[in-house]
Q: What sequence folds into this?
């Protein structure tokens, strides 16, 4: 057995529990586990940002200043109903997500999928944040779909995406103003449905809010998002 992320050889732990229980398909070594920072403690009620890492000036009650500004903008108020993220986007995770997304290491998604909170799926239609056809051709797969497939969660492609410059290369203001990135897929109807959007990283919140806005326009009652990293 090998660590899914760094490929270090792992020794199987032989005990009665492991003999009886089904072994996990995707395993992480202690070193990789120690470098993944799980988001715990007081955090923004909207986006999951850790308050321990935020100056008091950037908090507004139980939300961070970013989310407060989003919700103060009439164009974006109520578009996203909340976000859950599992890990802090630290240097280690930044490198591993790049390995996953840009260098085609598809199996890394299996390690992330182990942490997918299945409780978020209950009562919701799950949909991945899509890639444009051009970006999908470049990468060979959609990272959000890969996570869902490894987590064995059924999903529906409710959105399509237009091709443009990578979000990671855009300035913050450009991200916020890029309102035409998504459209509803053909014959998409979300009337009275609760939707769970899945993506890999929550940075400014622009991507999930742009997608949520389209889903709300298509009739979704609520749109919540889940990302691996925040």
A:
């Amino acid at each position: 057995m090998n660590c899914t992320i760094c490929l270090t050889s792992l020794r199987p732990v032989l005990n009665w529990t492991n003999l009886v229980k089904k072994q996990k398909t995707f395993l992480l070594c202690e070193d990789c586990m120690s470098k993944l920072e799980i988001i715990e403690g007081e955090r923004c009620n909207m986006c999951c940002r850790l308050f321990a890492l935020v100056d008091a000036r950037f908090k507004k009650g139980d939300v961070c200043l970013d989310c407060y500004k989003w919700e103060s903008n009439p164009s974006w108020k109520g578009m996203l109903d909340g976000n859950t993220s599992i890990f802090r986007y630290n240097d280690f995770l930044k490198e591993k997500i790049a390995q996953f997304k840009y260098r085609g290491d598809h199996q890394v998604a299996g390690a992330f999928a182990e942490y997918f909170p299945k409780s978020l799926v209950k009562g919701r239609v799950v949909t991945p944040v899509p890639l444009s056809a051009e970006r999908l051709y470049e990468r060979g797969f959609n990272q959000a779909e890969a996570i869902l497939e490894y987590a064995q969660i059924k999903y529906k492609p409710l959105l399509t995406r237009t091709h443009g410059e990578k979000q990671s290369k855009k300035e913050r203001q450009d991200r916020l103003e890029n309102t035409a990135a998504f459209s509803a897929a053909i014959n998409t109807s979300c009337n009275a449905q609760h939707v769970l959007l899945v993506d890999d990283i929550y940075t400014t919140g622009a991507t999930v809010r742009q997608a949520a806005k389209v889903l709300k326009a298509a009739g979704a009652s609520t749109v919540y998002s889940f990302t691996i990293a925040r």
